[in-house]
Amino acid sequence: MKTLSKLVSTSSVSLLVITSPVLISGNHKKPVTLSTPNITAVTASHYTSHNSNKIPNYVSFHTAAPAAVEKKEDFAAVAAAKKAFEVKMVILEAVSLYDSMKLGRSGLNQKAFEYAWRGYHNLLKKGVINKNSVLSICDFTQSSHRKRLYVIDVKKRKLLYNTFVAHGMNSGIEYASSFSNRPESFKSSLGFYLTSKAYMGRNGLSLKVTGLEKGYNDLAAKRKIVLHGSDYIGLDYLKTNGEMGRSLGCAAIPNQVSHKIIKTIKNGSCLFIYHPTKRYLNQSAVING
Description:
Elements: H1 4-8, E1 13-16, E2 22-24, E3 31-33, E4 41-45, E5 60-63, H2 72-100, H3 110-125, E6 134-139, E7 149-153, E8 158-163, E9 191-201, E10 204-211, E11 226-230, H4 235-241, E12 251-254, H5 255-265, E13 270-274, H6 278-283
Parallel strand pairs: 6-13, 11-12
Antiparallel strand pairs: 1-4, 2-3, 4-5, 6-7, 7-8, 9-10, 9-13, 10-11
Helix pairs in contact: 2-3
């Protein structure tokens, strides 16, 4: 039987689950076992490896028709096994991409990318994303003094932009640690967004976004949360003031790159704002969908 590491690189993968599938644990080393009685063969088809130039639509999983499965509990176990296998394969692809693109060298937190890739995968599967060639990640585990916005070309497996991004003034000073979906909170909101159209506003060229996570960022439009350029974020401002400026909740980026980034990610791409807040990670319908 092939090893799992070899299975990852194949375009069509078949795996017979003899006892139970495993989910990758927090450090991706210790497996978390999910008990699954009466599991049949699980097939992962249309799986795109990291060596392919094609954009991965999503991983499609099918289960062979169970001959002896009659109880609802057995069907639930099969569904759980399929989901566990799907999640594991998506995480494995994320790890492979993270390593092959050398994203760690640019400072991107590996967990941030893994969760971003899981959410991106689920949104693709549901047909939510219109522009699937690009994925943007705000990594709020990092200091605002560092370049923590990443715009990735998913098709070419290339980091297009890596720049500074501001968080909300009430989310923290150097680090963002408090988040809110509430209007007038002046805090950043976690989760997945779908970019919309660009427009000229008081901050120049700006980009509307739609929050996709109920209770976490779905009031973004009401709060007028957008991505825009600003003079209060960037090296010049940091050198002059000793700290980065903060926004009223928007993702503000340096004016020098704002037009290029907005043009690249507008009209239906995925934007993910990450922080290791356990409540959000456990409750996110996009990540856990």
